[in-house]
DNA sequence: AAGCCGGGCAACCGCCATATC
DNA sequence: GGATATGGCGGTTGCCCGGCT
């Protein structure tokens, strides 16, 4: 290939770009659940998607895979990321390897949007405090706009870093301009905590291992909160090279705000001995990818039923690697309107969108 | 109420590494 | 060993949404 490095997996004239629609998501999930993803380039065509293979891969890895941990980063995760970044730099995939269920893209985003600023503030803070005082006293003040709980969204925390925090702020990367006032994520916790003038309470605020951050939309499903807290966590010294978080992320579905994932949650209890129909050649890959660890046959069937689809069942159909609409007997037919489904903003927030879309006579009849 | 602005994040782009022929 | 195909990674962009004026 003369143009090494160029992504030639797709013809830009032919592929769809931009946000993924629910229908596309479903197609991708359906296909991968049935066939695995041994060949990303061929996948979109076989799955009936007008997408670039790389786009499918990214969508799967970063969002649709059941292995992806949905939800917010805990304070500990954030601290771990900062430490790892200090040691590894922008090796996002390496950093992500320490956080099962977290993707490099997600960690990269968290770093760029939150942690980089926080670190900059800490560095600045440490400079300020070291020049003005040698005291190691933590002087955290809290400016509340009247609400009494964290999570109300209005609290500003003027934060001078602790010794522990400043000790981590050794990154030599350029600092972003920032003030010493940090807008704490209003949802940086699992449950409201009373704020008083009690310094102890303030300390808890800044060190609690139960707080979670980056709640993207504020609706937290308690069943999906993945606690990283453990006794003495705040004093825990991190391994420089390896942070073993295995066993912490055991729930493959962690979208705290998405009915889509909630619905999938509902089907976990239904996971059964249903045989996963796989192409033989794909099975090893499928299993080694970890996909096989999560038996999603039932929720897949549910989704397919919701859209009036049923999975290919016979060997020939499987070899054809296509999902057949109900009633179709030959070549797979992806309803035209299926691709014309709108992509409403925030569809992620409600799986009802599938039902709503289906409830439309024209859409339903298209299937 | 409407417009503006900034933050957050999903997705894309281009390059590199590795596998395969 | 070279050419090509594919996967993977990191940087960046652009859209959406909530808060502010």
From TrEMBL:
Keywords: DNA-binding, Nucleus, Repeat, Transcription, Transcription regulation. InterPro entries: Homeodomain-like_sf, Myb_dom, Plant_SW-associated_TFs, SANT/Myb. Residues 12-64, 65-119 form the HTH myb-type domain. CDD domains: SANT. GO terms for molecular function: DNA binding. Its main location: nucleus. GO terms for cellular component: nucleus. Residues 126-145, 208-223 have a biased composition (Low complexity). Pfam families: Myb_DNA-binding (PF00249). Residues 126-233 are annotated as: Disordered. Residues 12-64, 65-115 form the Myb-like domain. Residues 163-172, 180-190 have a biased composition (Polar residues). It is found in: Nucleus. This is Myb-related protein 308-like. It comes from Pyrus ussuriensis x Pyrus communis. The lineage of its organism: Eukaryota, Viridiplantae, Streptophyta, Embryophyta, Tracheophyta.
